[in-house]
Write a structure and sequence with these properties.
The protein is α+β, with helices and mostly antiparallel strands. It is built from four helices and eight strands; from the N terminus they run E-E-H-H-E-E-E-H-E-H-E-E. The structure holds coenzyme A. Keywords: Acyltransferase, Cytoplasm, Transferase.
Length: 163
């Protein structure tokens, strides 16, 4: 995977050397960000991390994937606010699907906030469909909680994952 060229951007496997930048982008992009330690634990547990960088070296975005039995769980997908709406999310999702297929898993699973239409639109465009809801899954403002929509992309039932 390392060095896959996307015109002016390239993908690499996330390593601990990326984590200061990853955690900085995470703080800019999310109201309830993962800590640096969350990313470190993910890498140490053997999960897949992917970074997307601009040729100048700037970190554009990243994703973290956890294999669970026969499915890949997309734990985090994030694009730096200044780089959003330019295809980076799509490029990372494509790479996540490529890795999942290469690992011969049957599909992908993710959770997303109902209040995040950008992400939902991206996943739907890619062929993910909502399969359920997890009550009070996410922290929200004023100590409230927000449900998660669970979305799934099955490689067995459709050809969408090939995009
Ligand atoms: C969700 C996120 C990853 C999308 O990344 P991105 O690089 O902006 O997405 P892309 O440019 O690849 O967009 C692909 C498609 O997503 C949808 N999309 C992206 N941004 C959108 C926006 N502002 N409004 C509506 N749809 C949007 C569109 O379908 C878009 O295709 P289009 O630009 O041809 O219309 C990015 O907004 C992000 O990191 N948000 C903060 C973190 C987050 O919420 N992550 C998801 C957690 S589940």
């Amino acid at each position: 995977m390392s060095g896959v060229l996307l015109t002016d951007r390239y993908l690499t496997a996330m390593t601990e050397a990326d984590l200061d930048e990853v955690a900085a982008v995470e703080k800019l992009a999310y109201e309830f960000p993962w800590s640096r330690g969350n990313f470190q634990d993910s890498l140490r547990n053997g999960y897949y991390g992917v970074c997307l960088r601009h040729v100048t070296g700037t970190l554009v975005g990243y994703c973290v994937l956890m294999p669970v039995v026969d499915e890949m769980h997309l734990l985090n997908l994030c694009v730096a606010p200044a780089a959003q709406r330019a295809g980076a999310g799509l490029a990372l999702l494509r790479e996540a699907v490529r890795i999942t297929r290469a690992e011969k898993l049957d599909g992908m699973l993710l959770e997303v906030r109902p209040s995040n239409p950008r992400a939902i639109q991206l996943y739907e465009r890619f062929g993910f469909t909502a399969i359920g809801r997890r009550k009070n899954y996410y922290p929200a403002r004023h100590r409230a909680r927000e449900d998660a929509i669970v979305m799934r992309l099955s490689f067995k039932e459709s050809a969408h994952g090939a995009r």
